[in-house]
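Figure caption, in words: inputs first, then the predicted bound structure.
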Amino acid sequence: MSCEEPEDSEFLQHIPCPSCGSSDANSLYSDGHQYCFACGAYTPANGETSNMDSNAKGRPRRMADFVSGETQALGKRRITEDTCRKWGYRVGDFNGHKVQIADYWSPDGAEVVAQKLRFPNKDFTVVGKLKEAGLFGQHLWRDKGKRIVITEGEIDALTVSQLQDNKWPVVSVPNGAQGAKKSLQKNLQYLLGFDEIVLFFDNDEEGRKATEECAPLFPPGRCKVARMSTFKDASEAMQAGKGGEVIDAIWGAKVHRPDGVLNGAEMWEAIVTDDAAVEAAEYPWEGLNRITHGLRGAELVTITAGSGVGKSAVVREVAHHLVRSGETVGMLMLEESVKRTAKGLMSIELNRPIHLDLTPWSALDAADQEARKRAYEATLGSGRVYLYDHFGSTEVDNLLNRIRYLAAGCGCRYIILDHLSIVVSGLDDGDERKAIDVAMTKLRTLVQETGVCLIMVSHLRRPAGDKGHEQGAETSLSQLRGSHSIAQLSDMVLGLERNQQDEKTKDITTVRVLKNRFSGETGIATHLLFDRETGRLSECRPEFLTGDTTSDDGDDPF
Ligand SMILES: Nc1ncnc2c1ncn2[C@@H]1O[C@H](COP(=O)(O)OP(=O)(O)OP(=O)(O)O)[C@@H](O)[C@H]1O
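Bound structure (adenosine-5'-triphosphate present):
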């Protein structure tokens, strides 16, 4: 239904209504006719009062199209007749159906331009031009003041108004949460007349979304957000007899801050309940623990080295140590089969590299079989090791999903990814940089989201000069592959150095901390000696590097 503007009459002022007694719902027009928006009484220029009837002749077409009704209390909603009268909220009949009638006035408060009719089943229809209307209730208040409350619906506006003795400004957006931003934008000038604008939208997903969209319309600090923890909206609280919570929400409304910005004063709870982040697990080597202070949740540790230096051997030792310390570990070893990974863990437990032993199970003697079974039970059989059988699928989003599952579904607090380079390999140089950036950003976000500690292996670029990493060249952050994202987004970067060609030292790996966001301590952490008999990496004194092992205590100068 649409309404046209009367061509021959203009609104002059609000006047009392002789029919319903409203002090100001009656409107006087320039041709002398009156119309009361509280009770629908129509008084033509000749002074004879009648109720509006859409078929009646001799009155402006716009008036005739509006629906009349009676002011009455809304029992179920606990809204009084006085409140309904103040707001011109009526109950009437529309095409044979009972409706609640909400008048929408022009932004200048001169006249009603639309009506929203609400059916008992909560459907509604609009009569007139809602687009030309201000906010619901805007005509009731002066255009400036200390505070205005904005609700998501008409009944909520009536509720808030009544709870404030119908004295303090409250308006509703006309089209619910979805159209909220547009409506507030349109009436921004009016709203900016108030020192404080309180958004009191529904406490549901749509309401919260609307709040995030609308709040930035206002200058910083002027917009506050009212929210109740127990009720969805003001009317629900009122119906439950908890109107006080509505008032508390308005007075306790917090200055809106965009998502992600926190006031330090609200962080106490987070600090005292942050035990998980403080808990640290240990590396198998004391020297490394001393400088890194262990491994923590939500940390991304990158282990890097040249080809064949021993990255996988190191992470296997770390995984074994974690499992034996009672932790649950996820292993994505993308360059080897799960069987090889499993045997690797058992080898460490057995102090014997069984992966090099090609004897079939049936040919092993009973004692060996028993020893291997025990090694299996202490490691894989504990149920705290999860392996990713990748079948060659190393696509980054696929891996991220598996890591998320390992964290959330399997309870892995430590996850090993060996190695990042394979995830982004096969791409030309330019694309590899970009792929590393994308993968690193996603991994970093995932670590933060899940709280896991991710231990990731990454390869190095060849260093400048003759000496490669295979000949023991020193590692550095600048040699990490891709752009600077690996160094930037890792909390800890460990470089492994070993001269695979030097007869004296080729079994000794130097572990260098290249980056340490936790404590800032960097430099050589320890030296690991590889025992070919046991296949184990254990800490050794640095003198092994020079071959001078005569001193009992390298730290003691005397
Ligand atoms: N400190 C060490 N001394 C001597 N040999 C070692 C040492 N660490 C590992 N190895 C041996 O070197 C070989 C390669 O080790 P590993 O596969 O762990 O290296 P990597 O750095 O992961 O290799 P890639 O660059 O191919 O990924 C293995 O046979 C391993 O047992």
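The chain has two domains: 66-255, 265-269+276-546.
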